[in-house]
Structure formats: C-alpha cells, structure tokens
What we know:
Largest sheet of chain A: 6 strands, antiparallel
Largest interface: A-B, 145 and 146 residues
Structural class of chain A: alpha/beta
CATH superfamily of the largest domain in chain A: Ribulose bisphosphate carboxylase, large subunit, C-terminal domain
Strand content of chain A: 25-35%
CATH class of the largest domain in chain A: Alpha Beta
Shape of chain A: flat
Number of domains of chain A: 3
Oligomer: homodimer
Radius of gyration of chain A: 29 Å
Strand order of the largest sheet of chain A: 19-20-21-28-23-26
Number of strands of chain A: 29
Helix content of chain A: 25-40%
Amino acid sequence: MEFVSATYRLRCAEQDAETIAREIALEQTVEVPEELIRSAAISDDVVGRVRSVLPVSGTSGAFAAVIDYPADLAGTHVGQMWNLLYGNISLKRHVRLTSVSLPAEVRRRLPGPRYGVDGLRDMLGVYDRPLLATALKPRGSSPEQLAALAGAFAAGGGDVVKDDHNLVDATFAEFRERVDRAFDAVEEVNVRTGRRTLYAPNLSPPIQELDRYAEYLVQRGVRAALIAPMLLGFDTVAQLTRRYPLVWLGHPTFTGSFFHDPDHGVAPGLMLGTWFRWLGCDATIFPNYGGRFSFSREECVSIADGARSPDTDFKPCWPAPAGGMSFDRLSEMATDYGADTQFLIGGALLSDSANLEGSTRRFLEAILAQFPQANQREPAAAWASACELPMTTEARKILEHLSFRSDFTWRGRAATAYKPDDRLPFRDVSRTELVGAFGESTAFDVRYFEIAPGGYSSRERHVHAHVVMGVRGKGMLDTGDVSQTISPWDLAYVPSLRPHQLRNTGREPFGFLCIVDHNRDRPQPA
Amino acid sequence: MEFVSATYRLRCAEQDAETIAREIALEQTVEVPEELIRSAAISDDVVGRVRSVLPVSGTSGAFAAVIDYPADLAGTHVGQMWNLLYGNISLKRHVRLTSVSLPAEVRRRLPGPRYGVDGLRDMLGVYDRPLLATALKPRGSSPEQLAALAGAFAAGGGDVVKDDHNLVDATFAEFRERVDRAFDAVEEVNVRTGRRTLYAPNLSPPIQELDRYAEYLVQRGVRAALIAPMLLGFDTVAQLTRRYPLVWLGHPTFTGSFFHDPDHGVAPGLMLGTWFRWLGCDATIFPNYGGRFSFSREECVSIADGARSPDTDFKPCWPAPAGGMSFDRLSEMATDYGADTQFLIGGALLSDSANLEGSTRRFLEAILAQFPQANQREPAAAWASACELPMTTEARKILEHLSFRSDFTWRGRAATAYKPDDRLPFRDVSRTELVGAFGESTAFDVRYFEIAPGGYSSRERHVHAHVVMGVRGKGMLDTGDVSQTISPWDLAYVPSLRPHQLRNTGREPFGFLCIVDHNRDRPQPA
C-alpha cells in the first residue's frame, strides 16, 4: 500500500501530542471515534497511521506529527487532496500542515510546470540572472494606457509583464480588447528589438467561460497567463494548466488566512511553493518580505525552496517575490533568491512611469550588476505562440474524411452493437459511431443508427438534449404527447428529459443521425 | 454608482486605524500607492472609499472600518468577489472581514437557496421542529453497509441522511453503486412508511466530471446533494446550485483557516452563514460548539443568523450544527438554534448502530419533547424527484421539428448573413442556423451553409474542432496539405487549429452542414 505522508505542527502539552495526532488521523479519514470502527479492513486500509510525534527542537510546546494516509484517500482529482490533508482539521485549533510527501501514483495525477525555469529561459534567451517582471495597473486605466506601459517595459528590456490580478473584465469583448492591445504593444517591441518580452494577461472569467477565454489566448498567440488558484479552485487550475500550453503564473490572492498564525493553517512554502508548482504554475508570485505584506524572510525563502527544489517528477517553478522591491534592496534579494527568480517590481517602476522605459533599463542594469555572469543569447526554444506548439496529438491529427458509400456506410467506420442495457428493450437497430469515439476533441458525438422495417429503438429519456436527423427511409419520433415523421434531412431537437423512441414506419431501412453531447448521462427507461 | 460595502475589523493602535483602512481601500482596488493615481476618474470610480472607522466597543485596540467598493469591481462572477473583499488583504496582518452588504445588481448574480427552510419543510411535511439529520460513515464501509445505515435511519423517522464528506469515489461506477444502494434503501422505507426521508450523496467528482455526476443524481431521482464550496471553488458551486434543482447541503471542510484568529480571516457567520446561503446552499453544516471543534457558542449563533436572517432576495438556509450533539444537550441546542435547524447527529447515533433505527426514534422523540407544537402533516409540495420538477424552461420546451423542404431549406429557419468579420474574405455564402441559436441546451450547434458556384468560405482556423457534412452539390475542403471532395453525406472532421476553407467545385449550389461546439473561439485568418 502506498501512502500520502503529511507532517503537522501541533501546539499542545507534551502529554496530549500523541492523542491529538491520533485524533487527526481519525478525523481526516473516517470521522468517527476509534471505538466505532468495527472492521479490521477499515482500521488497516482507511484510518491514517501516526508514524511519529516528536518535539520541535528549540520551540517548547510544539510537536511534529507525521501521519501516513492510504494513497487511495487522496482521490483521483487534485482538489480532494486538501479534504484529506487539511479538511475538517482546519476547523480545529493549533494544527498546522507543514509538509507533504506523495507516492508516485498520486504525483502522476498532478500536472506540474510545463516549462518551468529552464523552459522559460529557453523561450526568452535569458540565462544566469533573475528575470525582471512587472504588473500592468492600476485598474481603471484604459486599454491604451495599459498597452503603453507594457510597450515601454518591453522597450526597456523587461522580461515578463503581467496584468494586475484586479484587471477583471465585465465581458469577453472587454477582455479581448485589453489583451489585444497589450499583446500587440509588446509584440511590436519584440519584433523591433529582436528581444523577447512575455506578456501574461489575467485569466479570471466566470467559470463556465474559462475555456473560451483560454482558447482565445492560445488562438491569439499569447504565450502566458496569470491565474489565482484559490479563486478558481484547485481542480479547475489543474485542468487548465494541463490543457493549455501557456506559461502559467500563479497569484496568491485569497490565500493569506492559511499563513497568518504560525500554529495554524498551511506553511507558505507548502501552499505557494510546492502546491502551486504541483498544480502546474511555471511561476509563483508571493509578497516579498520587507514590503507591505507580512511574510518573514524565512517564509519567503521557504516558498522559493518549495517552488524549485530538485524533484525528479516536477520541473522547477520560478519564485516571483513581489512588493516592496527597490534599487536599494536588489543586492539583498539577489543573495536571498539567486538567479532563478522573477523580481516582480510594480510600484518602484511605475512611480517613475513618466519614463518607464528608462527606469526598466536602470533596473535591469542593477540586476546585471548583481549577476555579472548573466548572458542574453540565442534562445534555445522557438518564440512560438502556444497555438503553434504541438499542444496535443489533436493538432497533429490527420484530417478525417469519412466518405459516404451508396449502401449507407462510411469508409473507415463499421456498425457496432446497439446498446447493452437490458432495461431498455429495442428491436433490429444497428449503430455506427462516426465522430467522437476516436479521440476527437469536439464537445459532441455523431452516430448513425439504422432500424429495420418493424424495428424500434428503446423508449428512454436522459438529461442531455440531442438532435436527430433523417438519412434514409422513413420513421417516426414518438415523444409521449407528440409524434413526428422523420424523412431524410428532417431535423428534430429532443429536449432534456423528454421521453422518446424512434420507429421504422416504412418498408425499407430507416436510417438517422444522432448528434449528441460527448459528455452525457446514460439513458433511462421512460 | 452602487457599492459593495465591507466592514473590516482592524487590530491596531488608534492613530493608525484610518491609515490602515485607507491602505485596504487602495490595495483591494488599484494596488498602487495613492500618489501614483493620476486620474480623477480612477480616484472617483475605482478606489475604495473609507466610510467610517470606529472603535469596537468593549475591545481596546480594535476598530471597525467600513469601506465601499464600486459594485463593478465585484466582477460578473461570484468567485471574483473574494478577490475584491479579501484577496491581497488576506496576506496582511490583523485585518478580518466581518460583514458585507451588496447592492441589488450584485445580489441578482447570486443564486441563493432554491428551497430553503420552507421549501424543504413542504417537501418533507415536517413543521415546527428541527430536522434530524445524520451522516453515512465511516469510509471503507461497503455500499451495502452504508445503505443499511441509511435505511435504518429512515425507518427510525430521521429526516435527512447525507454521505460523509470523505465518501469520495475513484470512479463514476463506484459513485453510482454507492448512491443507488443508499437511495434505494431510503426510498424503500419512504414507500413503506409514507414518510419522507431525504438522502444527500456527496458530490465530489473531478471538476470536468461534475455535470455528469450531477446529471446522474437528477436522472436517478435523487433530490439532494452534499458539496464542499472551498474545495470546488465558489464560481463552480454557484453554477451547480443554479443549474440543478437539488437540495444543496454545504460542507465547511477546508474553511477553518479563515476562522482561527479572531483578528484575521473572515467571520464564520459571514462565510458559512451568509456566503454559503448566497451561493445557493439550502443548508449549511458547521461544527457545533462544545464538540470536537473550536467554534464558540456565539460564533455558532452568528452562522445560524447569517444563514436564515430575514432577507427580501434570499430564502433562509438551514443551519446544520454538527458534532458533539447528544441527548443531554438537546434542550440547550433547542434554545440556541430554535426550530428551523437541522441537528446533524453522527457519532451519538452510530455509537448505537446495532440498533440505529431505535436510537433514531429515541432522538426524534427527544426533539419532539422540546418542540411539543411540532407536527407532521400532509406535505405541501410533491415528493417529486428533481428530474420531475420544472427545472428549466428546457424541460417544458416543445419538441422542435425542422422538416426539410425540397429547396434545401428547413421549416422554421431562415438563412442569415454569413459573417461580419472583414478580415476573412469569402464569396457567395449563405448560412442557416438550425440548432443551438434558439436556447437549446446541447453542447453543439448545427448550421447549414450554402455556397454558390464559384464561391468559397473564408480561409480560417480556430481552436475548436468541428465536423462538416455534405448536403447538396459538390465541394472541396482544403486544409493546407490535404484537399477532400465533399459530396452529400460525406463527413469530415477538421481538427483543432487546422487551417481550412470550403469551395464549390460544381455547377449547382454546394450545401453542407457544419456541426460545431456551442462554446467556441472565433475563427482567425489562416
């Protein structure tokens, strides 16, 4: 059996530490007291196992408890892992999750960074120094004003320009306009200078519009995006980063309550470093110490460690300390974070925004002074937009051409069994899957059914709606209150939950296409 | 201008309170220091306005700051609201969000409970007393064992039986089996006794499977479900509760870090009471005081208040205190929470699970002793499964029958302009929207295009894949490297991002169907 191993920091009296650890192991798995577990299989295979409870050296009244959870409990989707690690237990006092170790089978379900440190260096052609990043703001500026800032930053030699996470659009049209202008401004400079500045728009649409917005970015040639995992939901973010080949920048908004109390919540290095990296962020933004937020130097370094410590499965993710960064502090930052860092500098650049290009250049020179070995050379990777990348096998797929034959079959497709559900009687029906069962990426399937004279399909209903179109012969679509003749090219829309059945009412085979959502519920007897 | 008004509790020296309030107003809106805002429009329409900063009476060093944010900044989707209310500010110390007031335009975007207190009473036929609820557990039990518990609880007269939130399935088949058995066990008792016990399975699938799982519940006749808003993401939950007519029970897992420090995070009454209600939860589960979690009596009462205080826009949501509930405490609970409460009793019932039916009955009798005015009467609402309810206009929609006419038109549909994008030249093309543009719920659209002899469609590409099917005449599908003839009934699948163009190569009109995802990106020149 494989285990997810979690380390908790407990704040308690020494004589209670073991008991508390055991309570956590029960609460997070079975949620009943020990005496109510009456099966050895549950005790052995479900309940968490307390591996060790040791005093934290140098801190009296603090203990590190290591609990192993059966890997099955982490679920097959990534959001569920937090239910296991820190679900109910978040509602108790004085328990902080400080580190997590995952077995191979759970690690495989996590996307991890697609580009990471080396991948982005190869895209930009910038080696052996931190990247200089900035944020477009303030909200309320026009798209032209934001685009001008983006262009000036690129012209000054900046590496990464992201939207402020407060740039949220009321409509898709607004999003498009804002993104288009900033992207064009940066690309115009890229073409002129031969350098490469990456632009990352804020992706924060209503959840049901997420794919539409992300597809737009890919389509438009944009190569990066900013996301806020705590607002979008972890599972949604893992889906996004896995699906779209953008450089993903993770933003920490709304995560702060996990970090406020050192005896509660989740260690910042685990959440913003390790976890954001596992979720597929290529960079993780966090408030730098000494600025207007509350992280300590030690916490910031732990985030950087979580983001880019060596790992065989996950590429390193860029730590991107932000806030309170100034010329004076560059030497300190260089020492603390090293070369594989994005210095995200907002206010200190904008405060000189009358000449943002000049101040960007000065900042870059200050970075180069700290990293004399830095070099800008021919990038190892193409400056391809995401839509030019081999994003999926889909993009390389040969166009499929299913030519129709006079016997009402299609080249490359064969008829299959109608359906195996014996609750749904039917007679003399054959089915041919045309589109959707062969790895296509459409949201729908197209199938051809043929019913012999005297035959009928099952009477059924389901939540998904679908469309029927006649191909040959003549049939009847019965839907309880209404019946409709279906002849070739006739279309019928069958609404959600409407009982329906098709019958051949002629003397030759009755053939029809069924166009139906790819993700759909099973038909039920009606 | 309308405003979202937020009240924060600050812990600071009196002379700093105004300054901190002003910093919050800037941080949450423009994220730049005041001196960098150079436009009056931004100062007036974007920056938060500090309305008042007053000492909290009875607590030295605590201040209540009221900040008004322009309603536009709350975004058009509900998750974004937390970016505005407590995004970056969560990363600062000693600031807690304690209450929020929304203008009408923002309230309209929130689903709110569909059934609420009265709706569920009318479904169950139980009036003037708290409901008795329990949880199926522990994880690791077989579906048969869980179903037996559910049946026994129903037989004992229990009102609501939910899955434990740790009951998470590795596959859809497991989910189905578990739900089917428990639901059937409860329904069997319902039929036998004429009473109504509600079963709420845990809905916690991978995010891309959410609709499939939810549709299964609706389809199967299940009337309720348990969800964990902090794991799923707020926007996702609002979509779910709006779309599926289930009774939704909200679970607090993973929310605890917001509540741990009284000087930080979000007040529990706001998050678990008001916010879960706004999101569409009909009941909100929270750990009762005096049990194994850390809420105080006052905090629990504040959750109940947030859940069901009078509101013209939102029905009341059931508070469902859980944990540490025993016979001894029923009188206290009755006094604190009143009749419109679900008493969620797990351990105290299960500890007597050799006779769960009997202990359920005894618990119910103890509740009735506290609420002598309670009555069970003919339910005012049908015991309809969700799929029998008028869930959307969709379910009432008349079957649409588009009969084909010999001139290659369809009854009820007319040709429209081809497309307005002048970057994409075309010649002699007409378009008829057949399915998808008229409020259908399919994930795809069906359109008919006709190209006159010598004409062609635009050469374009897009992220979404689609399908072309010949209807009349003869044409050519060009895709860069490959060209294919399209005759009637020929099908072609055009993969994602493949450049393509259709041409009429014959002497009569070339007509074809295009089947395409309903949500899709715009075509671009290729």
